[in-house]
Amino acid sequence: MNLRIAKLGFAYPNGKQIFTEVDFSLKKGEIFTILGPNGAGKSTLLNCIGNLSEPTQGGIFLEKDNIKDLTLCQFAKRVAYVTQIHQPTYAFTVEEFVAMGRTPYLSAFKKLGHQDQRMIEEAMELVRITHLRSKAYTQISGGERQLVTIARAIAQEPDFILLDEPTAHLDFGNQIRTMKLVKKLSDRGYGIIMTTHNPDQVFFIGGRVGVLNRSGVFEIGVVDQYLSEDLLSRLYNEPVHLFYSNQLHRNICTAGA
Amino acid sequence: MLKNISFQEKHLLKEKRLNFSALLVLLVVILGTLVIVSLCMGRFPISIPEVIHVLVANILPLPQVGDANVESVVMTLRFPRVMAAILVGGSLALSGAVYQGVFQNPLVSPDLLGVSSGACVGAAIAILIGIGTFGIQIGAFVGGILAVALTTTAPKLIKNSSNMMLVMSGIIVGGLMSSIMGIIKYIADPETELAEITYWQMGSIAKVLPKSILMVAPAMIVAIIIIMILRWKINVLSLGETEARSLGINVKTTRRIVIIGATLLTASSVCISGTIGWVGLVVPHLGRLMVGPNNMKLLPVSFVLGGIFLLMIDTIARTITSAELPLSILTGLIGAPFYFYLLKKERMNLS
């Protein structure tokens, strides 16, 4: 299974171009991170890939299928989208919330069956939230809520999972745990596209990164070769420093000198 | 390990289902008891065995009760009214729960969205034109749909989709509708039309005829079936547009169908009973306290609870004084403090 983003561009109806010529592809089991400053259009890009906004140029292909030609249901069986954490209106239980991931497999007359229930259990087990199953989604912490949303995405049985800044609003420990979970998901064979504000997370994840700058230019590289102090400093208009840690065996990214 | 989980899961599933169906059965039994009690009560008291005899004799070929008055009071006067109370109460509660779900807003209800007053205006115009019961039904539906369309468009124009904005917009539309109602009453013939229109506005099922129940019942049943079929999707819609779409739901179409269904229910209720406030707001909250926000359970429970609530109210309305009290007075007197209690208990986060 291959997700291909081909010459993707997006412009607002008033003509303002957000990004152009976004071009990359992703196989199952790979992680692709999208890095960029505030307002560059990372979320818009991810929304286009997630079939939530319509791109004005180019297209997105699952194998040979243009996603425009798929029904929403067919698409939802292959690509899941994890939104940023938000305050929900109704106090569904965690289990009910995860169960909604089965929506693309249900119809008006087909209720949750044993196969569905098994997927729900597996999803909750994988992100280790089974003990929260009867808790109200409104009463758990932000970090737990993020896990529940990821479990719902897993219950969708997708090939690809898109995450929009999964660590926003999370404390330090939960940020690290979420990043570890993202790596675990890719080891399990899910293809992952993730946007982030934090370059250090990109070094943690490794693999390939796409950088979207404020002028709408999108460039791709392998993290350790491509992300330099110079590039990051220009991207954020602030001196950024990279240190190699022998303990972590990776670059650490920080700023503030 | 896996065996263990599947056993546990079966156990859990079973337990939950039992809880929910037990509750639903309990509520239906309460409703049934209430029907019998309500048929007994009134200015002409009838004993429980007599009422049961009359009911059974209407289904099975048994000899009727000796006193023809008993039969006529139960079957002609009280039974249609009891049925109307259940249908209207259930429909209003159900449509309230549905609106609260699709608008992701626990503050809305058929009255707050302006649907009830819009339907009332539509019905009043139909009365003015004089096009019969079916015309009134169509008028109520068109008025209700127009009102809900207006209410939901205003926040889009202002580009503010918060809970509060939708409520404000509902108040605006409700106000507009009551002014239009004023104009209609002003130009209506005081001898005939005005009385009929006023009766509509106050909310009463005192003059409900079996014929008019049969007129609206098909529309109600169709709407209830549509809503019940879509109740899983209403859950997903209540997560918000982005998430619903990413879960494979065609948000616009589904939402439109669900809103039309709920509006059809409200409008059909308005047709036989006029505007009755509070039921559509309070009952779904009570239901949520009992079974949680999952519409798979909430919607059936809300319908039965709404039936119980309005049947109780209507029985009080016709027995407490010799003159009939309009239902909206009683639903407000009981509903408003009760709503306050529920809000306090839920400690609802409204931001």
Automatic annotation (TrEMBL), chain A:
Looking up SUPFAM superfamilies in the UniProt record yields: P-loop containing nucleoside triphosphate hydrolases
Residue ranges of every copy of the ABC transporter domain listed in the record: 3-239
Enumerate the Pfam families for this protein. Answer: ABC_tran (PF00005)
For this protein, the record's InterPro entries field holds: AAA+_ATPase, ABC_transporter-like_ATP-bd, ABC_transporter-like_CS, Metal_Ion_Import_ABC, P-loop_NTPase
Q: Which GO terms describe its molecular function?
A: ATP binding; ATP hydrolysis activity
Q: Which UniProt keywords apply?
A: ATP-binding, Nucleotide-binding, Transport
PROSITE patterns (alphabetical): ABC_TRANSPORTER_1 (PS00211), ABC_TRANSPORTER_2 (PS50893)
| Gene3D superfamilies documented for this protein | P-loop containing nucleotide triphosphate hydrolases (3.40.50.300)
Domain of life, per the record? Bacteria
By what name is this protein known? Putative ABC transporter ATP-binding protein
Automatic annotation (TrEMBL), chain B:
One function term, GO molecular function aspect: transmembrane transporter activity
What's the chief localization of this chain? membrane
Compartments annotated for it: namely: Cell membrane
Keyword set for this entry?
Cell membrane, Membrane, Transmembrane, Transmembrane helix, Transport
Q: Where on the tree of life does the source sit, at the highest rank?
A: Bacteria
In terms of InterPro entries, this protein maps to: ABC_BtuC-like (IPR037294), ABC_transptr_permease_BtuC (IPR000522)
State any GO CC term: plasma membrane
* Bilayer-crossing regions: 20-40, 82-103, 123-152, 164-188, 208-230, 257-283, 295-313, 325-342
First and last residue of the signal peptide: none
Topological relation to the membrane, as annotated: Multi-pass membrane protein
Q: Could you tell me the Gene Ontology terms of the biological process aspect for this record?
A: siderophore-iron import into cell
Pfam families, sorted: FecCD
Family stated for the protein in its record: Belongs to the binding-protein-dependent transport system permease family. FecCD subfamily.
Q: What is this protein called?
A: Putative ABC transporter permease protein
Species of provenance: Acetobacterium wieringae
Q: What is the lineage of its organism?
A: Bacteria, Bacillati, Bacillota, Clostridia, Eubacteriales
